[in-house]
Structures are given as C-alpha cells and as structure tokens.
Amino acid sequence: MSDQLVPEDLEDLYENAPCGYLSLSPKGRIVKFNGTFCRWTGLRPEDLLEKRLRDLLSVSGAIFYETHFAPLLRMQGFFDEVALDIIKADGELLPVLANAAEKRTEAGDVLFTRVTVFRAHERRRYERELVNAQETERAARLQLEKANAALQADAELREQFIAVLGHDLRNPLAAVDAGLGQLLKRGFSERTPTILQLMQRSVSRMSGLIENILDLARTQHGDGMVLHIEHGRPLEPTLTQVIDEQQAAWPEREFSVDIRIDHNPPVDHVRLAQLVSNLLGNAVTHGARDLPIRIQAAGNEEILEVSVSNGGKPIPPEMIGELFKPFRRGSVKSNAKGLGLGLYIANQIAEAHCGRIDVMSDATETRFTFSMSTIDRSSNTRDLDD
C-alpha cells in the first residue's frame, strides 16, 4: 500500500465535510450550502435557498442572533463558536456551534459570508449538566447554611433558656424556702400572714414561669397556639378578674381602669386574660412605682382594643423591635423578674387572634396596645360551641 497522498476531490470534500457549510449573499440570504447541512437538518435545497440564517433559528435564537451576533459580524467581520438552535425539517431543534467570516473587497464591501456549523449535542448536554450540577450544589449549600443557622439559633436559644430558667426559678424557690424556714422556726406570729402572702406570690411566679415555658414549647415546636373561641360571653368580667388579681398581688401599686366594651367579641377568654396579665406584669416590673398603671379597653362590632400604660423611663427605639422575641428583656433593670417570655407569649396570643400588639414609648408613658378585628378570626381556632 502506498503512503502517497491521494488527491482530494474538493467537491466531495465540500459536500460531505464533517461540518455544515453555508454561504450568504451580501444581503444575508443563503446562496450555497453543502449536503452535510441538509442531512443534519432534513431540509431540502428549495427550503434553504434565499432564506436568511435567522429564518432557520428558534424564535429566541433569531432575536439573539439579530441583536448580538449580526451586529458583531458587521462590526468585526467574523464571530466564533456562537451557540444556536436550528429548527430541523421535523420541528426538532439541532444544537450547533457556528463560526462566520465575511469576505470583503478592498473597499470594505461584503462579497459573501461563509458560515461553518458544528453539531453540539454532547457539548450542550455537558453544559446543561454542568449548569444543573452548579444549581444543585448552590441549593445544597444554601440548605446547609440554613440548617447550620437553625442549629446555631437553637443552641443559643437553649443556652439562654437554661441560664435564664436557672436564675428565675431559683429566686422564688429561695423565697419559699426562706418563708418556710421562718414559719418552722418561729411558729405562728403577727408576721405569718405577710410571710404566707410572700410565699403565695412566689408560688404564683413559678407557676407563671412554667406556663410560659410550656407555651414557648408549643409555639416553637408545635402547631402554634390553638384558641378556644367563645361566642356571646362578656369580656369585661374576664378583664376585671385579671386586674383584680394583679391588684391583690401588688397592693402598693395604683391601677386606673377604664373599660368600655359594647360588644361581646369572639375570643379565647383564658388566652386573652393571659395576654393582659403578661402586659400588666410587664408594666408592674418596668413602670415607675409612684405612677399609676392605666388599663383601657374599648370594643364594638368591628374592633377590640386593650391597652396597658405605665410611666417611667422610655424604651429605647432600637429595643422595641426586640421586645417580642423570647428571652429578650430589653432595657430592663438588673433585678427584673421573669424569663423574658411574657411579651413573646402575649404577642403569640395576639397573632393567634389575627391581631397585633403595638408599642408606644416616650418620656410621658409606655403603652402596649392589643387590637383585633371582631369580625374575622384565625383558622387556628376551635369554637367551644361547635
């Protein structure tokens, strides 16, 4: 067998080249093409002659070609490795990479444009797989970041919970223990009623702490706060009872009450009592001792509003947004009592009623106002009369 090169048949080389050939007129119309391009696309010669290259492309490809590649070709006379989708005779898309170069006169006028087309099934598939892999990796990284942030938040919450709980339960327990010690040592005396009252207050504090912890667990890890809605029950006696309990617990504080409710709103009386009790407890703890705590309630067939106000130092504006987060005590005193859950639980109760708690604080007073529509109720409820 001879090593000598057999002369190429240039016509056969053009027609059966391993790539598609197109020649475009100065006006951009197809005037010549090879057999390879026809076989790849299934298009007949009469389907190609005098067509523009953009006529063979998908709609998005044609727009992109006209707005990007055609101007580039006119400006520099060529473009390389442009990704296009050619519409075959059967309507399927043929992914290709196209190169183009203009043949110009010495004066710069275009004589014709040569276009070579290479099938790019594998390359485009690889590119799509690469993009998909990158998107998958990005999504997985975001999920991991979210999981790590959640774990860190849970760890911080757990540390705060343990630290605050240990501190806040220890104090009332110590008070009960001290009271029992005095009673056992001295027996009944004129101070016994005072000691028993202090012990009862400490027990009530511990009970409240435990209830707040249970509510926190329900809201953080359960289905939220479920309400037991009652229809037609007057709300004023419920509010009056809560205020009387706080007055009995803090006889040295002055409470100013103004209740004007003309309609019996559909609410969970137990939860709403807890909300008002938490707001009152917050006012007692942080309000000025020589100024009254004002409770105002007004309601009609459309809206219910209950506000608790106290005098004293205003809450710094930057702290207001933190008040309703668990274990946040804002700018409280160092001897402030409670887990820092009271306002958080109150806000959860308000949201369960499709309501809200607004805060206003200035040099005159600090006011927490609960408001809700008495028409619409949350779906996370259960009517007691069902």
What does this structure look like?
This protein has 386 residues and is α+β, with helices and mostly antiparallel strands. It is 46% helix and 22% strand. Helix 5 packs antiparallel against helix 6, helix 7 (236-249) packs parallel to helix 8 (269-286) and helix 8 packs antiparallel against helix 10. It has a 5-stranded antiparallel β-sheet, with helices on both faces. A 5-stranded mixed β-sheet has the order 7-8-9-11-10, covered by helices on one side. Helix 8 links the parallel strand 7 (255-261) and strand 8. The protein has helices at 10-15, 35-41, 45-48, 59-76, 121-186, 192-221, 236-249, 269-286, 317-320, 342-352, and strands spanning 20-24, 30-33, 78-87, 93-104, 110-119, 227-229, 255-261, 293-299, 303-310, 356-361, 366-373, 381-383.
Name the features.
single chain, 386 residues, alpha+beta, 5-stranded mixed β-sheet, rod-shaped
Number of E strands = 12
Helix/strand structural class: alpha+beta
How big a fraction of the residues is strand? 15-25%
Q: What's the overall average pLDDT, rounded?
A: 82
Number of DSSP helical runs: 10
Order of helices and strands: HEEHHHEEEHHEHEHEEHHEEE
N-C termini distance: 100 Å
Major sheet summary line:
5 strands, antiparallel
Quick synopsis:
The protein is of the alpha+beta class and 386 residues long.
Task: Reconstruct the topology from this structure.
Layout: H1 10-15, E1 20-24, E2 30-33, H2 35-41, H3 45-48, H4 59-76, E3 78-87, E4 93-104, E5 110-119, H5 121-186, H6 192-221, E6 227-229, H7 236-249, E7 255-261, H8 269-286, E8 293-299, E9 303-310, H9 317-320, H10 342-352, E10 356-361, E11 366-373, E12 381-383
Parallel strand pairs: 6-12, 7-8
Antiparallel strand pairs: 1-2, 1-5, 3-4, 4-5, 8-9, 9-11, 10-11
